[in-house]
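In the previous chapter we treated chains in isolation. Here, by contrast, the input contains two separate entities that must be folded as one system, with a combined length of 548 residues.
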Amino acid sequence: MLDTNTFIASTRQKFGPSILNVEVKSETRATLSIEPKVLLNISNFLYSYLNFRFIIASAMHTRRGFEIYYHFSNDPAGLVLNLHVVLPEDKPEIESLANTFDGANWIEREMHELFGITFLNHPEPEPLLSEGNWALGVYPYRKDGKELKKE
Amino acid sequence: MSNTKIIPVGPYHPLQEEPELFKLYCEGEIVKDIKWETGYNHRGIEKLAESKTFDQVFFLVERICGICSTSHPFAFANAMEEIAGVDIPNRAKYIRSIIGELERIHSHLLWVGLAGHFLGYNTVFMWAWKYREPILDLFEMITGNRNSYAMFKVGGVRRDIPMALIPEVRKAMDGFKPKLDLLIGAVMDDPVIHARTKGVGVLTHQDIIQFAAVGPTARASGVDIDVRRDDPYAAYDMVDWKVIVTGEGDVFAKAYVRLLEMVESVSIIEQCLDGLEKEPEGDTEVKVKNIPEGMGTGRAEAPRGEVFHFVVTDGGYGPVRHKIRAPSYVNIATFKKSCIGQTISDATISLAAVDPCYCCTERMAVAVDQRTGNMLYSGEDLLKLSHMKTEEIRKKQ
C-alpha cells in the first residue's frame, strides 16, 4: 500500500514546476496548490495511474478570486488529496473534468450556476439546479465587497 | 427516433417520497434514454451554514436529511475535530458509532420496505417497516427523538448512554436479531424477488469508478470502499467487523449488501456496548473553546455512502465556507447507466436501488440580487406565480 508521501513524490516528479505549494496536514490529508492549466493532466494522472476516486469540488469566493478545491480520495490509503487552484476574479475559467469522469459533471454545472465559474469543454453545459429559472448573470454564492473585506 | 415516447415520472408522484422528475425516453417497453430534473428542494444550506455558529451548524446539517440525520453531523464533527486537533474520549466514540449504526439499520430497513413496495410486493414493505419501529423507539429512549437526534457536538456527544440503559439496548438488539434473520431469509429465498431483481439495473465496476459512486451501490458492484474502514473515525477501528462486498451489481446485489450490512451493524453495536461498559459514565466530551483558522475534511459512511464535508474557518465563530457532498449526489447519476435498455417496469426498481435521497442532494439556494439585496423571488411572489399558473390552466380547459 502506498502512503501519502509516495503519492506526492510521484506527482511532484511528473508535474514539478506546476505544483506551487504542498501542505501535508496529517497522514491522510494533503493539499497541492497547482497552476490551473495543469489541472486536467494532474487529475488524469491521479485518476488513471494512482487509482484516486473523485469525491467532489468546493468553490470559494475570496479576496484572491475564485478558489476551487478538487477533493480526491485514495481509499486503500484512506487519503484525501485536495488539488487547489485560484482563478482570477475577472475571468474565472478552467478546463472541465467531466470528460474524464462523469462524477464531475454535476458539480461543475452547480459551481457555474452558483459562482459563475466557466468550465471549458463541458460535455453538458446546461443548468443543473435552476432549470433556467434564475436571473442571468446573478450568482447567489458570490460575495460582495463588504463580505470579502471582513475576511 | 419518431417512435420515442416520453414517460414522465414525477415531479410529484405517488410512488416517490420526494419531488424529482425523471423523463424516460421509451421505444415500446424499452427505456432508450433518461433525463432528470432536480432542484425542487433548494434550501440554501451551504450558504446558511456560513451565517451560523459552529454549534448551530450541527442542528442545521442534521436537517439536511430526515432519514440519515446523524451522518451529516457526524461528518461535520469529524471535520471540526480535524481543524481543532482534538481527540474525543472513548465513551463518546462508542456512543457516536452506536447512533451511526442504529441509523444504518433503520435506513436500510426503510429501503428494503420501499424496494418491496416499488416491486408491488407490499408484504415486504409491511414487515420491514414493522421491524423498523422498535429501532426508532430505541432512538427515542437513547436520544429523546425518533429522528434528528441532536447527539453531536464538537469534542463529543451531548447526551450519555447511562449504564442503566445498556441492558435495554441489548434487549432490543436481541429482539431484533431473529426478525432480521427472518427478513433476510424471506428476501433471499423468494423466487418473486429473484425474478424481479436479478440481472436488473446492472452497474459494472467501471461504471462505479466513472461516476464516482459510493456506499452500498459501489459495494454491490465489487468496489471495496467503506470510509468506516478506509479512513477510520469514531469507534470503527476499535471493533471487529467486515465490509460486505459482492460483484453482480444488480438490484438483488444491492439488497444483499444492505441486508447483510444490518447484521454487521448489530454486531458493531453490541461490541460498542461492551466497550461502553468499560468506560467511566459521563466521560462524553472534551471542551473545545476555540476553533482555529484552518480547513478540515470530514467523512462519514452514511447508510447510502460516503458523506463529505469540507469546512474552512477563519478563527471566528462560524464556518467561512462549508461544502457538503451527500452520497446520492453521485449515486443518482448512475441512472444513466442502470436504466437504459431496461423495460419501464424495471426502471422504477433500478431508480430505487441506489436509495436516492433528494433532500440530501439539493441543498441550494435563495437567489439574491447583488445590486439591490432583494430576493429575486420571495415566498409571496412564488404564491402569486402559482396562482397565476392555476388560472392559466383553468382558462385553457
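Chain B has two domains: 5-38+365-396, 45-354. The two ends of chain B are 31 Å apart (CA to CA). Compare these points with the single-chain example from earlier in the chapter.
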